[in-house]
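WARN retry 2 of 3 for item q-0093 after timeout on previous attempt; input resubmitted unchanged.
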Amino acid sequence: MQVWSFLLLLLALTLLAATTEAGKSKKEKVKKDVSKCEDWRWGPCVPNSKDCGLGYREGTCKDESKKLKCKIPCNWKKKFGADCKYKFESWGGCSAQTGVKTRSGILKKALYNAQCEEIVYVTKPCSSKIKSKTKAKKGKGKD
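OK item q-0093 returned
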């Protein structure tokens, strides 16, 4: 009976030591990522493949460097950069001379110290189709 008690106590102490070690390694990982440097300079988000999707951005501060995961939406405006966020007005009227519509956007937010223009202008071709306001619902109640 004493042997079983001793083995149970030994097993409990072993498990306790193992969980304590696991907890220490997690805390050490968190401490490694904490930097005393406050003046980080971040580069643009560089996609892993093509020109959008998952990627990374590099940051430097004094003699330290880091890489962060980032994502570039596939519908972003390459001209502006993915780190510049704009608030756009409604589309203007169609110009008969040029055949394009124009609208402007005012800088709302610059992420990661990105160099962004305060005001940007975008154009798109005028639509030759007239959109109908009533659209049929697909698949519901129709044979």
